[in-house]
Queue: 2 jobs
Job 1
Amino acid sequence: MDNRKNIIPRIGVTFPRQDACSKVMGREKFSSDFYSSDMLYAGVKRAGIPHGRIRNISTESALSTEGVIAVLTFKDITGSNRQGVIRKDQPVLADDRVRHCGDAVALVIAESPESLKQGIDSVTVDYEPLEAIFSTERALEDGAVIIHDDNPTGNLLLKGSLERGNITRGFEECNHIVKGSFYVPMQEHAYLETEAGWAIMKDDGRVYITAATQTPFRDRMEIAHATGIEMERVAIKAPFCGGAFGGKDGISVQSLLCLAALKCPGRPVKMWWSREESFLASPKRHSAMLEYRLGAKSDGTLHALEAEITYDTGPYDHLGGAVMALGLEHAGGPYRISNTSLKTRAVYTNNPLGGAFRAFGVAQVAAAVEQMIDMLSTDTGISPLKIREINCVRKGDINSAGMTIVTSTGISDCLERIKSDPMYRQSKTWKSNASLFKKRGVGLAAVMQGMGYGPVVPDVAHAKIELLKDGIIRIYSGVTDMGQGNSSTYVQIAGEMLNQGAEQFELLQPDTDKSLPSGSATASRTTYTFGNALIGACEIFRERLLVRAADMLMVTGQEMAILPGRVRHLPSGRELGLAQLASFLSDSERCVSHRFRMPVSEDRPTGDEMLRLHGIPHAIFSYAAHLAFVEVDLLTGGVEVLKYLAVTDCGRIINPQLYEQQIQGGISQAMGYALSEEFLSNEGVVRSADFSTYIIPTSLDIPDMVSLPVEIPESTGPLGLKGVGEISTNGPLPAIANAVYDAVGERIFQSPLTSERVLTAIESSKRNGDA
Amino acid sequence: MNIKFQLNNRPITVNVPPDRRVIDLLRDDLGLTGTKEGCGSGECGACSILVNGTTRLSCLMLAPQLNGCIVETIEGLTHGDDMNHLQEAFVKHGAVQCGFCTPGMIITATDLLRKNPHPSRDEIRQGISGNLCRCTGYQKIVDAIDAAAENSDDEAVR
């Protein structure tokens, strides 16, 4: 079977992934798959201590190690030696001090992996230890050591608030008020492919980097800024990533590879982090403390919400400010609430690095607000579904962040679909069938996820397509495919637009020398933004083919149709193959491009320009309602998810199979977040060092999931779609926590809900019951 | 030292240091990069290969252990440029996302189906439980193996 042949893609119908065949045959080349006989290997000496001033870096011994070619330190960097997207505060190689155990201090380049390891071990660093900060509370105390001397707000990276109505009077007018303090831990992305890449400086003086990255175009700017090389001298290719989930949003190996390639012209240099190094040095989902107070009228109408959320961003911004802002915007959930006081802050510490992770600050707040809603449900006696139905936002409403919602909004439809589903309707019977020493519970969550970069940073893509001389149409993808299948969807969209089968296309993965800047593979934007650009490009392209074919056939343009592999003059039946047509066109005519910018919200829930820069507000949101069915073992505290239902509003679905992949994958990753995943460090030293101590779900931990769409077309979306990449990550923790409460009558405010925590809660409730 | 073994149906002799890991031998020395390394400590299963017909973790094996063995990697499961039925099922049923766990997952499923041509879904889940996947939630992988077993007889895996 060759799945590329003879399939004219149709929208809304499963279309085989264009990358699946090469992946199942082991032929797809990932960034780590390049080897050559003249390869050099690069690696870094990492700090190993959470905070300290560097007195001296001793490289002599490493340099005298056999096979070591060079050892670089900050002194060898001519650029700013600072990376970061908004606040550039992360050194490529530490200069005055190290700020977490994973900081890179020296770059070693060697002839073999073995000599590289010896070289790295031979680098010694003399530190003056500094007070290290492991809690956000300590970070903000007077007299705490300041982690970045140049930050005007000390250890506070960023704070923000959204206020609406009158919070004091609001609570006074409530008949029911509930309070909760939640803690959610760091989560590791745990993509199967660790950070990897290779680079070479060629005779033209340019550095060619191939790396696992979600952000090839932005990387180029960051590398240039940090290393001091002109941006035109850096070219980046982004092959398929072996998973990323936000963890490859930004620089990992790229600047280091650039330095290594500059040092060793003409030699390919490879860097590939071990699993332990990846866990140590890569960014994580931020841990967060969330203080909530929520009030409702006696009829269940939400009336006042107060929330204070603190994200631990670790030693660097690394998008922590933007994560915090998105959390702020989503802190009240998909509800109408008249009186709100929402406050968030992101705080520097010497803990492991916080950064981008699928759902980007929202998974944390969704966990809190959705449990608060259930607590209110218990307090009012109104069912979890009903209380959400009463309060959920509909198009035209003002949401909890104070924004008027004018784009497609399907949360009420999701809840409606849950309500009519047999799984929901039969949940009482299902719960009553628990076996001995087990209790069952069902939990609901309603969640949302904003799409794109917000009002200030342009969320732009440039699609480019070219008719090659042999009649093949090449799509130049500008956005990384890290497994979500966006590039395959580009072929599907172009196939639909141009009436061509998949075999007519060649798909080029992002290459900064060939593709056009199209932003990051993040923020649920990859198919929306690039897809819209691609539709525009296809329209221009089709028109050009038809007009030029008409020229060749000496007829008028209106009578032409584009058919698979050819163009036809309908009245005469004369046809031109695409290769024939290509030979008639000049090089510049064979290529078209189109720019698209995601619409921005005109609403102004805040005048804080920093918050706007960091993304508030968004214009378009995806929504979902999740229902978790759990069984709790009363003897062990173990929680098993036995069934799961997710109903999602992500606009119109282009490829049902890829849609399901995103939903199922996001749920699974977040089931880990709910039940087992807790990235632990002790005084800054990583304790969850690898897969034996950081437990992600296996095939035995995830049940078969039911995923249903409510297909409400988003009018601005390409063919009606909106983002689906992140939304499913927000539901599982609160839905499972609510289900555990439903089963055992205890709320556990600290996640993950490990056996130990659940059993402790059950035992303490027994004791309290006995007393 | 010299090591002789059968690799993907072809006899091969290699001269390698005795402490060479099998995964490095395959990927670096022999260019078979279909076998992936996800952890280097036997936790993730991405480096799975078949040794004498049984799933083995190539990151935990040293090259001399292959001496005299029949070794199959993901590259050896295809029929020339054509996928086998199990690989086709992975494509058709959407079992592939980032694809980094995929070769190891297919190797493990091959072993499973050769020993148990018609496993239940629970047996499939048990069978692949040593292979981590971070993208799919496993459901479509189970679907694919299930489907390959359905219309198999022995063709599914060879």
Note: Helices of chain B lie at 22-29, 85-92, 102-115, 121-127, 139-150.
Job 2
Amino acid sequence: MSGAGSAIGKDLLGLEELSADQIQLLLDTAEPFKEISLRAIKKVPTLRGATIVNLFFEASTRTRISFEFAEKRLSADTVNVQSSGSSVSKGETLVDTARNLEAMKIDMVVIRHPSSGAARFLAQRIESNVINAGDGMHEHPTQGLLDLLTLRDHFKRLAGLKVCICGDVLHSRVARSNIWGLKKMGAEVAICGPRSLLPNAVEAMGVTVFRRIEEAIEWADALNILRLQLERMQAGYIPSQREYNRVFGVTREKLERAPRDILIMHPGPMNRGVEIDSDVADGPHSVILDQVTNGVAVRMAVLYLLSGGNPALAEAAKG
Amino acid sequence: MPNHEPRTSQHDVVLLRNGRVLDPSQRMDIVGDVLIVDGKIEHAGAPLGDVRRDGDLVEIDCAGQIVSPGFVDVHCHLREPGREDVETIATGARAAAAGGFTAVCAMPNTDPVTDNQAAVGFIIRQALRAASARVYPIGAISVGQRGEALAEFGEMIGAGAVAVSDDGKPVASAQLMRSALEYARTFEIPVADHCEEPTLAAGGAMNEGVVSARLGLKGIPNEAEEIMVIRDILLARRTGGHVHLCHMSTKGSVELIRWGKERHIRVTAEVCPHHLSLTEDSVEGYNTNAKMNPPLRTAEDVEFLKEAVKDGTIDLVATDHAPHHYDEKEREFSDAPNGIVGLETALAVLVTNLVVPGIIDYATLVERMSCSPTRIFNLPGGNLRRGSVGDITVFDPTMRWSVDPSSFLSKGRNTPYAGKLLMGRATCTVVGGRVVYRLTN
């Protein structure tokens, strides 16, 4: 399985390097795969015989399980490798780890790594297809795709949608993948958060910056609310969770002043009562669990296309 | 393929014929000859007739070449002692000679740190054994470069050190920097500082800006450098000491140095060839050979730095030659070490990026590479006057060559210029009247 000639290239490293057509193809390919997860027997033979390694250098529950379900439901053989820390502390370099895995004749690597650029680094050095499951503060393309799919499911379009990404954009790979994906699909993108947690030159990425969450709520069709990591307080970026909730938290009171219903998204895991209040997370406009469901379908589409699957045959590939 | 076999001839008489003899220190620019006898310049200028000497005479035709006082690099890392796998004083000195440098200053961030007279003496001895470009040790400012207690400047200078620096690390304590500047006045040596405000730069992997925002890499803002630049300038004003600012990289630093010089504060500054030719865009694709500290900045910073070299706000060009092992750069970007090799590409990068576009002329190039570093660091050379030390760089200003790291004499291969077509190359390097390097095709 090489997939070098696949419609989306050899690897999926980020949404920045994909065209609008390729993103559209990924979303369209995910559609027929949604149904597999609804069956009693959630398995099709599409990737039978393929070997996939899930190489996680950072703790992850949701993304790793979602990938594993996607792989298993396509009948691939999967191995999970968990390792903490960078190559320096681990003693073996990333490239040596990967070459050892490849020597066991694998087809794909799904990698999660704390260093930005790690997925690309790997992709340039091994033959197998590489899927970026999150690299440092850079990109998390399958999260971006599942967010796009969820928005498209709800609004039936992406072009012209107004989406605001709220919170710690500076450290967020989810934010970067969302910005690229949304902009390529014709949506308008804004970000909102404490300035100490926004990249200094972020306007150059073509996004609007809202100083206050009330302004974002006034403007947006959808909010994608990022998780606030506890480390940010310790590192002195912002004072406290309490003040964050007061100033930037998405609460029902703030949403009630919006001129329209606003779709609520969150990549998880949530800090209830910090960046998002429970009655918003569990409220009628929340699609947070739909995002999780779509994650499996999107990852199946990515695996299928990278393996060289014919997009037109995705429906038939379900078997 | 050019062959860089170092020549180790011991001839006492070297005659460089028919070159463009360029000595900005005496405004000399004439096609003629340079004669070196017993390690000293006997003649530089008008063509000589027949030269008859007892013993061997090495006569080199320099037609079409520039013959100038030897280039001096006041900032390089030769890694010995401690990391002889990535460079030694001998390989570093030979790489320097191949780049047209007749002398280099070795920074003290070795292992162990060069912070005492014995360590300084070791470098002097290794340099003598290498018998190539001269190597002048720079001693540490603080014991162990830990930024706490002052190292023994006097003893290190007695053993041959020419300056002090904690390069690789900033002097975080303003009080220690003040003491260093005051204490150094006894010996009249520069205190060379690596300007980096450590809390602003912490964890940074590249310039803070558009590219870091996209790549998701922690940025180092210009202000991390500039805050220390102005601190050091103000402390030089307070103390009367001579502060030399290493590897300047930002527009703001240039403006602050200009401010200091206008007030006759004793501040001098250097810039590296990479900061005059490359921008943060080189990091695209997580290229670890574009990772250095200070980081590559923006096109606007580059333009300001070029202008500062032209008008003398920046006194000299230094390489910050920093060899690393292949394995160390073959890593995730955030884990890869900072630095690139520079000794063998510096001249060509400057000719290609500053002289060819008409920003500076060759006289200014020689001034910034030879006259200015020798003057500021109180080193021999920097001119072609009769009786001066016989350190000469001969270079072909129009030779085009493609950078092939595998042909470097340095052990380091980590360069962002690999495969780049550059112009200008050293063809012959003379140290103390000995030809230590000749480029042969």
Note: The beta strands of chain A are 51-56, 77-82, 108-113, 129-135, 162-166, 188-192, 208-210, 222-225, 263-265.
